[in-house]
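Q: Got a minute? One more chain.
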Amino acid sequence: MTDAPHKPVIVLVRPQLGENIGKAARAMLNFSLTELRLVSPRDGWPNPSAGPAAAGADVVLEKAQVFETLAQAVGDCAHVYATTVRKRGVTKPVLTPEEAAREIHAHAPQADATQGRSAIVFGPERSGLETDDVALARAIITVPINPDFASLNLAQAVILCAYEWSKGIGKDGDLAQPTQEELLPPAPQDELEGMIGHFEALLEPKGYFFPESRAAATHRTLRSMLTKPRWNHLEIRTMRGVLSALGRQQRD
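A: Always. Here it is, folded:
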């Protein structure tokens, strides 16, 4: 069973800890990648430690396939990217995750379930990919990173590549930004006018608009300041409540 052919395959080569496999699966599913391939996992597969670490990304673990060699794992992939911080004596194009993601999307129209697919390959936690592993790839993915601490854990590396790939699927993809969905539309103009009038009614008796020669300019500045935020209905209602409370306090 394979994922949609336009989506890259994630390949973990000789992963050591089940927890790290689970965390990588979680990172994949965050960005709608579900096809995970494992090459000779040290502790075998399935691994009971992977499930809890996946935090609900069970579909990725259930579909995971195991291979003896990397060559077998990427046998149906025409575009293979090896992630490494070192070139390890091989001459390959070196790309950032963003550049690799663009290439993967460019290859997607030619991909099908049996050929032309893309794979992103990650090495063991401690040592990374060996030279022979990198030699199988068409290009290297390297993250610009602090040279004094060039260390990413497995899930971090996976999520960087998965996120960059997700940026290219467009608005019609299967990802959503929760904060955007939760935004309420701007309040109607009459509600905004009511709030501005409420401010002015409280400020007028306090002499805020004195001297009279500057009153018109002060009113305009106050209006400009209050119309800049995209107030929604709930925000305006809350602010009117605040103003009413202040007004009551003044009367008392």
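A: The chain has a mean pLDDT of 88.
Q: Perfect, thanks.
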